[in-house]
Amino acid sequence: MENIGAFLGFWERGAQKRSNFEETASRSVKRWASTTVFLSFFIILFIGSFLYWVNVSVFPGSLLREEIFASKSSEESLGECPEYFRWIHKDLEPWKHTGISREMLERAKAHAQFRLVIINGDAYVEKYKNAYQTRDVFTVWGILQLLRLYPGKVPDLELMFSCGDRPVVKKRDYEGANSTSPPPVFHYCGDQESLDIVFPDWSFWGWAETNIRPWNSILEDIKEGNKRTKWINRAPYAYWKGNPYVSIAREDLMKCNVTDKYQWKTRLYVQDWHKEKKQGFKKSKLADQCTHRYKIYVEGQAWSARAIGRAGSRYMQEKLKMKYVYDYMFHLLIEYAKLLKFEPRIPNEGKKVCAQKLASSQNGLGKRFMVESMVNSSSETLPCTMPPPFEPLSLKAFFENNEMIKRQVEMWEKDSWESLKFG
Ligand SMILES: *[C@@H]1O[C@H](CO)[C@@H](O)[C@H](O)[C@H]1NC(C)=O
Ligand SMILES: *[C@@H]1O[C@H](CO)[C@@H](O)[C@H](O)[C@H]1NC(C)=O
Ligand SMILES: *[C@@H]1O[C@H](CO)[C@@H](O)[C@H](O)[C@H]1NC(C)=O
C-alpha cells in the first residue's frame, strides 16, 4: 500500500459529485475538493481499492469495508474475480427482465462507431463512423486478443460500440411508465446518470498517438520506476501533468500550482502533446513520473480515467493486470450474450477481422504495440469466478459513504480557505 497511500483521486458517478480520496495527501491538497470526474473503467477499479483504504483511515467502523470491498488476499488463489467485477451485473441490470431484442440493438446503432459480431469464435466488424485516432482499431484488437486467450469460450453475440469521450445513453430518457427500454451501448465510460455498458478502453493495448505502450509493458516499467527512488526520498509534493484544457475541473486545478504567494505543495505541469510528439515523448514517460510522493488524479473527459491505473501501487498492479482486464471483458460478454433474444448474424457490410491482418495493416508505433500486446497462446488457467451482484443496501451505503467523504473534503477546503484568510 506504500504508493496507494500516497495517491489522491476523485471520482464521480454522474451529476451528483462524489469524490473519494486518500488521506495522507489530503492535508496538503485540501483545495481540490470540488474536482469532479466521471466513472469509467479505471474508476471502478479505483473504487475497489481506494474505498477500502479510505474507509479504514477516514471512517473507521463503516460497514462498507466488510460488505462491499473486503480485501480478499486469498481472492486470487481461490480463482475469484476482484470485487469490481460486480459492476458487470449493475451495468446489465436495465435488460435483466426484458432481455435484449434486435430492435433494441438496432436503436443502439445511432450511438455506435461500429458493430461487433462474434460467431463461432470469429469476429466481424461493421463500421459506421470514424472514431477519434485509432481507438476503434485498438478496441477491436483487444477483443481479438480475448478470442485468442479463451478460444471457443466467447459466446456468439452482436454488440454496438461507442468510442466517444462521454456517456451517450441518458438514464432520464428511459424512465417513466411508457418509456422504451434503453439501447445497449458498449463504451469506455459510464456514470450514474447514464446506462452505457462499461468496457476497458483501447489504451490497455497501447495508445500509439501518444506513445503510451500496452499496459503489460507499462506495468513492468512502473515497477522499475518505483524502485528507482524510494518513496521517502521523493519530492514531498503532489504531482500532476497533463492537458488542462479538456475540462473545467482541470482548469480549476491549474489555479492550485505553487506560487510565490501560496505554498500549495503542488507541482502542476502542462503536457503539450504536440511539442512532446516532436521531441519523441521523452518527457512524458509515465514510469519517469514516480519522482513525487503524491499524484493527483483529475478527470479530463471520461477517457483520461486511465491515468488512475498509472498510479503505480503494487495493489493496483495486482488487481489490474491484463489477466483481469481480459476476464472482465470475458464475463461481461458472457453475461451480455445471455440476455440476447435473437440469433446473431453476420452483418451485410461486416468484415471478418483477424489479428495478423489487423497488425499488418498498421505501421509505426501502432504496429509495434500490437505485436507487443499480442496474445501468443491460449490461457492455461480458467477465467476467474464472477462475484454475485451488489446487495442493493450495500450499494446504497457505498454511494452514501462517497457523499460523506465528499462533504468531509469540502469541509477541509473551507477550513483551509479560512485559515488562509485569517491565519
Ligand atoms: C401510458 O400509456 C397509457 C395508455 O396509452 C396512458 O393511459 C398513460 O397516461 C401513459 N402514461 C404516461 C406516464 O405517459
Ligand atoms: C507550476 O509551477 C512550477 C514551479 O514553479 C512550474 O515549473 C510550472 O511550469 C508551473 N505549472 C503551470 C501549469 O503553470
Ligand atoms: C507475444 O510475442 C511477441 C513476439 O515475440 C512479443 O513481443 C509479445 O510481447 C508477446 N505477447 C505477450 C502478451 O507477452
UniProtKB/TrEMBL annotation:
InterPro entries: CAP10, O-Glucosyltr/Glycosyltrsf_90. Pfam families: Glyco_transf_90 (PF05686). The keyword Membrane applies. The chain crosses the membrane at residues 36-54. Residues 153-343 form the Glycosyl transferase CAP10 domain. Keywords: Membrane, Transmembrane, Transmembrane helix. SMART domains: CAP10. This is Glycosyl transferase CAP10 domain-containing protein.
